[in-house]
Amino acid sequence: MTTVDWDALHAAAVEANAKAYAPYSGFAVGCAALTDDGRVVSGANVENAAYGVTLCAECSMVSALVMGGGGKLVAFTCVDGHGATLMPCGRCRQLLFEHAAPGMLLQTLSGIRTIDEVLPDAFGPTTLDAYRASDS
Ligand code: THU
C-alpha cells in the first residue's frame, strides 16, 4: 500500500494552478496526482476563446501522464486559486477513471474517497472488453 504525501500533492497542485491559462472564467484550476511508480504529474486548465474547447486541468495532467511514459494514478488532488480543494467535473472523473489504479484515492470536499465512490458503476475499458468478448 503506497503512503500518500497529501501535503506534497497539494503543493504540486498549487504550483500547477499558477500556470493556468484562464482569461475567460478567471477561475484557475491546478491538479496533481501520484503515479504507481512514485512520480507526481500535474496540470492546469487551458481555456480558449471558443469556450467549449477549454481544457480542464485534469486534461493537461492526463496528457502529461501519457506523454511522460504512462502509468496508473494512485492519488489525486485538485485546487482553486486559493488552494481550496475542488471536485473534478463529471467529464474529468471519467478521464481519471481511465488511468486510475484500482482504488485510486481523491481528496474531496467530504474527505478522502475512492474513484469508485465518485464515479460508481463507471463506463470504462472493461465495458468495451466485455462487449467485444460477448460479440465473438
Ligand atoms: N475546470 C477544470 O479545470 N477542472 C474541473 O474539474 C472543473 C472545471 C476549469 C474549466 C474552466 O477553465 C474553469 O474551470 C471554469 O469552469
Automatic annotation (TrEMBL):
Entries under InterPro entries matching the protein: CMP_dCMP_dom (IPR002125), Cyt/Deoxycyt_deaminase (IPR050202), Cyt_deam_tetra (IPR006262), Cytidine_deaminase-like (IPR016193)
A GO cellular component annotation in the UniProt record: cytosol
Annotated residues for binding of substrate: 45-51
Cofactor: Zn(2+)
Domain CMP/dCMP-type deaminase: 4-126
Active-site residue numbers: 58 (proton donor)
Function summary: This enzyme scavenges exogenous and endogenous cytidine and 2'-deoxycytidine for UMP synthesis.
Protein name: Cytidine deaminase
